[in-house]
Amino acid sequence: MRILVVSDTHGNEYALRQTISTQPEAELIFHLGDGAREALSIAEEFPNRQFRMVCGNGDFGYSALLPDSGMEETAGPRIFYTHGHRYNVKMGIYQVVCAARERKADILLFGHTHNPVWAYHDGLYIMNPGSLAYGTPTYGFIDITDAGIAANITELQL
Question: Which domains does the chain have, with CATH numbers?
C-alpha cells in the first residue's frame, strides 16, 4: 500500500492536484492542514482515493468540519496524524512524539513547520512532508509492504 502525505498547501490547489496526479498508486492521502479548502475540493475529484485531513492553524472556519488530529490503522501500522501547531512543533517535536507514543502509533505525521523531516526513532517513524506552497514544494510517501515500511520525501516538479 502506498500512502501520500502532504501539508501546508496554503491555497495552492494546482500543486496539490499535481502531487496527487504524480502518485497514482497512492490509495490513501493524508493532508495535514493549512489547506482545508483545496483539500476538501480536490478530494471530490479523486473519488477512488481515501483522504484523511486535519485542520491547521490557518484553516479558519474549518474546525467544525475537520479534527485537529486522527488515528488511522492501515495494513498493520497505526498512524497518528496532526497539523502540529497544538503540539508546538516549531519549538521541537517532543510533545507530538509523546502524543504519538501515548496512542501507541507506529507512524507519526505532522506539518506546520514547512520543513521536511523523515526519521525513525525507537520504533516510531516520523514524517513531516514539508510544504507544497512555500520554498521548494515537497511531499512524502510511505510504502507499507510485507517486508516493512519504506518512505521518502521528494520535490514536486512543477
Answer: 2-155 (3.60.21.10)
